[in-house]
Amino acid sequence: MSAAAPPRILGLxxxxxxxxxxxxxxxxxxxxxxADGCRTSLLDLRELDLPFCNGDKxxxxxxxxxxxxxxxxFRAADGxxxxxxxxxGTIGGALKNALDLLDFEHVEGKVFGAICALGGRSNxxxxxxxxxxxxxxxxWMVPEQVAVPQARSALxxxxxxDPELGARVDELARSVARAAALLRPRTxxxxxxxxxxxxxxxxxxxxxxxx
Length: 211
Fold this sequence. Notes:
By secondary structure, the protein is an alpha/beta fold. It is 40% helix and 17% strand. The radius of gyration is 17 Å and the shape is globular.
């Protein structure tokens, strides 16, 4: 039996702000996983031309080819790390709109992790709302999450001022990769299927033991 291919992890950056804290941390997470041997890709919503969702999840948007790119990247991924700002107590509009352009066929069964940057004090509002979106899509969200308070001063020179922040981002990234490897459909035998919920419940413990 051949060794399983490493998981494919997509990073989706949802901030429109130049020098975005969440985008820098997302790039850190994706670079770490690439160094670990994962297959990775990164989408920056500042670089995509996406329409506002019109409620039709099957609309191909032929005049907006980046919609197809977004959907294909999600379809190909085993795990996804979402990163963006919290605005007025919830998910930033650009990230939410990108998620609204997807459907179950692109997202269901995949593993998610999330990083949110806040201008003020730490809270989990946007992170909790992203968990609701993932659950609505019948996807998995790892227990780890990263909220970054006072985000504009969190990365002087592009690196975390608090080493614990960097460690938490690394832990989140590796948790997504480990869970994605466990939960993706198996292709190493006839009738192979994804691992069940019991395995998912042990993912966080496994990651913490190994890393």
